[in-house]
Design a protein that fits this description.
Elements: E1 4-8, H1 14-23, E2 28-31, H2 39-43, E3 47-48, H3 52-58, E4 59-64, H4 69-77, E5 91-94, H5 100-112, E6 116-119, E7 122-123, H6 125-131, E8 134-139, H7 142-152, E9 156-163, H8 167-195, H9 200-207, H10 215-225, H11 235-252, H12 257-271, H13 283-290
Parallel strand pairs: 1-2, 1-4, 2-3, 4-5, 5-6, 8-9
Antiparallel strand pairs: 7-8
Helix pairs in contact: 1-6, 8-10, 8-11, 8-13, 11-12
The structure holds NADP nicotinamide-adenine-dinucleotide phosphate (NAP).
Length: about 300
């Protein structure tokens, strides 16, 4: 079994990322807490493991992408976690978006067990994961990056080694500050136009090629105007990222005023039971305040 690659966490992001590793000819050992989600990959040839420890016993390189730091901790340190069976010199590449300080703690723990650990969160959404075009922000040791870079490029169009452990998630926090503020601005602008009686599609067509253009505007416009709030990227997960930004910013002593506003808007929607909606439902905050809806003009 040695030589296989481990992959833990087959959610919206993890499953297509694992598929892309397989498309490049890599043999995978996979684990997902809800086993049914592994079925498709197993049918395509992946080896099914029943615990993270079983993955660790078989693989020298283990990727994982779960929700947040407590989940990474469970996968690493839980009863049947990776650390129970870590092979000497194995590297764990954590692609979850978590607090950078948690990444630094996990690095120390894995090192103490004779392995190594990197933080390598991603941007690019579900479509980027399917297309193998993610942006991957990597923190960790130089030698580990050299070891995993080609594998990362099976999942992403770019993998930048930003610095030591935690740098990947610092970069991801920076990314989330920009994307959340941008998404809120898209919701604010489209609601403003709709309330003013101007067709939101024409507004988009008019400004999409100018300075207001953004990847976020382009990827979410059709969902918003089509009232398609199926995730994509769940509000529950987006607010988790903003919590990580707020707590890291407090520790580092930097202002995050825009992020604080986005956090409050998402919290209000989550309190209304919309946590499993796509994050573009942030537009609903503005719509509720303005008493209008951004929709296609017939
Ligand atoms: P998701 O569809 O909700 O998948 C979460 C995965 O984590 C599932 O496989 C889940 O297992 C597993 N998991 C959660 N808690 C666990 C625990 N305690 N023990 C074991 N497994 C656990 O989420 P996702 O959208 O793929 O997001 C995964 C990560 O990527 C998050 O950190 C997110 O912020 C980040 N991310 C997401 C996007 C996006 O557009 N979706 C983009 C960039 C980054 P079960 O199947 O058993 O629930």
């Amino acid at each position: 079994m040695a030589g296989k690659i481990g992959f833990i966490g087959l959610g919206i992001m993890g499953k297509p990322m694992a598929k892309n590793l397989m498309k490049h000819g890599h043999e995978l050992c996979v684990y997902n807490r809800t086993q049914a989600k592994a079925k498709e990959l197993v049918e395509e040839g992946a080896v099914l493991c029943e615990t993270p420890a079983q993955v660790a016993a078989r693989c020298d390189i283990i990727f994982l992408i779960v929700s947040d730091a407590p989940d990474v901790k469970a996968v690493l340190e839980g009863e049947n976690g990776i650390l129970n069976a870590l092979r000497p010199g194995a590297v764990v590449v954590d692609m979850s978006s978590i607090n950078p300080n948690a990444s630094r703690e996990f690095y120390q723990t894995v090192k103490a067990h004779g392995g190594s650990y990197m933080d390598a969160p991603v941007s690019g959404g579900e479509q980027g994961a399917i297309d193998g075009k993610l942006t991957i922000m990597v923190g960790g040791d130089d030698a580990d990056f050299d070891r995993v870079k080609d594998l990362l490029l099976c999942m992403g169009r770019v993998a930048v080694h930003v610095g030591g452990i935690g740098s990947g998630n610092v970069t991801k926090c920076a990314n989330q500050i920009i994307t959340a503020s941008n998404l809120a601005a898209v919701g604010e602008a489209l609601t403003f136009a709709a309330k003013a009686g101007v067709d939101p599609r024409k507004v988009y067509d008019a400004i999409k090629g100018g300075m207001a253009q953004s990847a976020m505007f382009d990827s979410k416009f059709e969902k918003i105007i089509g009232r398609d709030f199926k995730p994509g990227f769940k509000l529950d997960l987006n607010i988790k990222d903003l919590k990580n930004v707020l707590s890291a910013a407090q520790a580092f002593g930097t202002p995050v005023t825009l992020t604080t506003d986005c956090y409050e808007m998402m919290m209000m929607l989550i309190q209304q039971g919309l946590g499993q909606d796509d994050n573009c439902s942030i537009v609903k905050y503005y719509e509720q305040c303005a008493g209008t809806e951004v929709k296609e003009v017939q």
